Amino acid sequence: xxxxxxxxxxxxxxxxxxxxxxxxxxxxxxxxxxxxxxxxxxxxxxxxxxxxxxxxxxxxxxx
Length: 63
Fold this sequence. Notes:
The chain is mostly helical. The protein has four helices and no strands.
């Protein structure tokens, strides 16, 4: 994880977390539009796949 991700999830540098915990934290704290900031400059971001999946998951959680 890079510094932007760590800060966004409210974690500490060098903190050790298991994958299940990180999945829960990501699901709770990352919204589709957050990807523009968190992954600015990543070549895959422009494909929009991750944003669409997060949008679907967010919609399911709120219904």
